[in-house]
Amino acid sequence: MAEIYPRELIVDETLPNSEQFTVTAVDGRVGRGIRARIHFERGKRVAKFAGMLSNTVFQHSLQISPATHLHDPYFVGLLSHSCAPNCVLDMQRLEILALLDIGPGELLTIDYAVTEDTLYRQFPCDCGSSHCRRWITGRREAVNEAGKAYLTDLNGKLPRARRSAR
Ligand SMILES: [Zn+2]
């Protein structure tokens, strides 16, 4: 068994380890992700997490308060986004909670807009959820120019609604 975090960040023996999770490549598109290796029950704690406090948004940071971010490039900062996630973060207790039953091999996902006012980088989403927002922003920012262009292009590719005959 190996710890996921480097030794200097391990302040607590309840932090995640390699019997519970694997850090994995995710279809080459979103980089790395975290996969469960064991079963986690809906509503229960999946893991505690740690990191370095910062006043800056990093690619792998999560927001604790408007001016405080937790930078964790080892574990929680690697969680994948989904518009219909199986996990949610408690940024006060620094815990991941299961929204659904999670089985071995499943990718842990969160909705980035739940914790982040502004993302390090907005990005397109194709998570497969029927509620997929297609372009992901923080909860307090507008879709940027790249996102507007992406969404316009995407709408152009959808089949046109048939006009009613007069
Ligand atoms: Zn989505």
Automatic annotation (TrEMBL):
Domain of life according to the entry: Bacteria
Protein's UniProt keywords contain RNA-binding: no
Domain Post-SET: 121-137
GO MF: transferase activity
Species: Paramagnetospirillum caucaseum
Name the record gives this protein: Post-SET domain-containing protein
PROSITE patterns: POST_SET
Pfam families: SET
Keyword Repeat belongs to the record: no
Alphabetical UniProt keywords: S-adenosyl-L-methionine, Transferase
